[in-house]
Amino acid sequence: VARARRIVIKLGTRVLVNDDGSLAEEHLAAMVGSVARLVQASRQVIIVSSGAVGLGRALLGETHGLGSGARRLHAAVGQAQLVGRYSQELARHGLLSAQVLVTEQDFEVRSRYLALKETLQTLLRVGVVPVLNDNDAVSHGARNGAGSAPERAVFDDNDRLAALVAAKCEANLLLILTDVAAVYDQDPKKDLTAQPLLRVDEPERLLDQLSDGTGSHLSRGGMRSKIEAALVAKAAGCQVVIAWGRQPGIVEQVAAGAEVGSWILAEGAQSARRRWIAYAAVPKGTLMLDAGAVRALRRDGASLLPVGVTRVQGQFKGGDVVELLGPDGMAIGRAWIDLGADEVRAWCDGVPPEHGLNCLVRRDYIVLRSTTCREEP
Ligand code: GLU
Known about the structure:
By secondary structure, this protein is α/β, with parallel strands linked by helices. Helix content is 38%, strand content 18%. The chain has a seven-stranded mixed β-sheet, with helices on both faces. A five-stranded mixed β-sheet has the order 11-10-12-13-14, sandwiched between helices. A two-stranded antiparallel ribbon has the order 6-7. Strand 12 and strand 13 form a beta hairpin.
């Protein structure tokens, strides 16, 4: 975390906007001061800022009869104010800012995503601080998952936007600033013994708890979407810290590696085992996968199942590393496999090994090549 060179900082509405809808000027100014000091220390910062809708609502007042159009209006008005304040504050530190508004589709269509990535990288290279937000002014259709995914033009929340930006732009750290100090093991509002988790080692398990109802406290303050976002960033090798945004000096503390907030650490970034699989080991065979398996590995970080393997080549043993090929024969990554080639062939032909495994290779033992389109649908 302390060595992270490219940092995405996500600021939630409740960090920037007061309860009465006004902009929390002093927090914004302090935050921008911290960002400026990081940039002056040769670190690259992308800000993902919420707050447009809240600010616009306060400025315009209630707009009756517009339905979902009200949000678009609020966003359009609020965004102008918001980005204006960022520009002013950054200018005090001699920095230029750039407004970049995106939609979920900008990450789904490869040409748009490549353009976005190039723009952000160039801005960072020339020392400009990009300030991103969802382009809520063009939002249409249902939100919050009620619409089918292809129809969803906007992000349900900026946590996901920030995570996708962090993943696609190869950021080393995603700092999600919110109105709670950390991820807790229990509901801190109900249980005084609730402990903040400095390390969230198994974020997937927390999400499972949410589904079975035992982790309902996590949904408060949108913690669920933060953990889901963290999983996206983590899978791309980006460290994630979730912390209280109004704590003075929080950005600098986190960037210096101080143990504040909750850390969700990326596997790819720190595991010697994965580095070994990826670079050191000599592959002893190949598994050719079908398109569905490639998609499941890339998009969902899934484990490899025998049903996805179309060809097994080589005489590898259990404990060897094998190359994974896509249906077109291109290498997509490597796996450290527990079974020998004959056992794998047998399983692919419908005869599973005797010692009940539930997958060919667990996700932790698969290292995918990073391609610019890792999460392309
Ligand atoms: N894009 C929204 C805004 O600027 C915020 C979405 C969110 O809070 O995650 O107000």
